[in-house]
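Lecture notes, part 5. Sequence design as translation. It can be helpful to think of inverse folding as translation between two languages: the language of shapes and the language of residues. The source text, in structure tokens, appears below.
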């Protein structure tokens, strides 16, 4: 990761911009690249990702027009239909993401874009000017397997940040479980918010590299997800703080109130 950042910072601004514009796939998901540069590259990737999915959809539609494929095989037809529906759903997700950023004021950054690894589009969005912010919040909503990937992103955010950030890892629902697994592999975050959490992978703060008082828990009455502790339990609230769901300001003055 440090080698990646050293390479990137060794380039001139013109060279960096050339890669962002013409080879955005090189750096869009690459840990060690500053968040803002990753975001710009991923925005440039959106159109090409949509074009690639459109080409796959056209290929499947051609099969259904009788120009290829064993259409007399019901098993093949069913699988082809499922694949076509999967591609159409992914195309819709990509288009929604593109439209969202068309109307964005610049407050959000598309720091991860993966349209090939699964049935659904995978994307991560950072809030604010992450490369310069005094307080950074990383949000996660993926499954348990995303913990390792999130840990790499948190390390990258720390290593490419200008200055000494107060990094907060915040996960909602099952995303807090991913964040818990990630924190077992990185010491980058200073604070951890678990919101409506079904468990954060451990019953103690030690494995999460979070010190007592920097663990914040929030849930609403009757939240069935938050009481099951399915993913490895949760450290006791006595090691941190219980925060209200209507808004909260941390001891450091960070405002988590709804905006």
């Amino acid at each position: 990761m440090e080698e990646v950042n050293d390479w990137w910072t060794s380039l001139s601004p013109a060279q960096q911009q050339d890669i962002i514009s013409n080879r955005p796939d090189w750096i869009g998901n690459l840990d060690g690249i500053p968040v803002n540069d990753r975001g710009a590259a991923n925005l440039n990737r959106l159109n090409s990702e949509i074009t690639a999915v459109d080409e796959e959809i056209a290929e499947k539609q051609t099969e259904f027009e009788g120009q290829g494929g064993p259409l007399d095989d019901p098993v093949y037809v069913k699988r082809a239909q499922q694949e076509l529906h999967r591609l159409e759903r992914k195309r819709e997700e990509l288009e929604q993401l593109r439209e969202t950023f068309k109307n964005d004021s610049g407050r959000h950054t598309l720091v991860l874009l993966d349209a090939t690894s699964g049935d659904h589009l995978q994307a991560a969005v950072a809030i604010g000017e992450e490369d310069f912010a005094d307080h950074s919040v990383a949000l996660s909503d993926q499954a348990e397997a995303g913990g390792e990937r999130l840990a790499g992103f948190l390390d990258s955010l720390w290593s490419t940040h200008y200055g000494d950030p107060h990094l907060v890892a915040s996960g909602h629902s099952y995303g807090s479980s991913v964040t818990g697994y990630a924190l077992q592999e990185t010491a980058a975050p200073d604070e951890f918010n678990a919101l409506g959490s079904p468990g954060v992978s451990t019953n103690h703060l030690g494995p999460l590299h979070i010190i007592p008082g920097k663990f914040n828990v929030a849930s609403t009455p009757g939240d069935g997800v938050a009481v099951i502790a399915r993913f490895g339990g949760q450290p006791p609230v006595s090691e941190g703080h219980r925060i209200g769901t209507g808004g909260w300001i941390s001891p450091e003055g960070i405002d988590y109130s709804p905006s």
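The translated text above is only one of many valid answers, since several sequences can fold into similar shapes. The chain has seven helices and seven strands.
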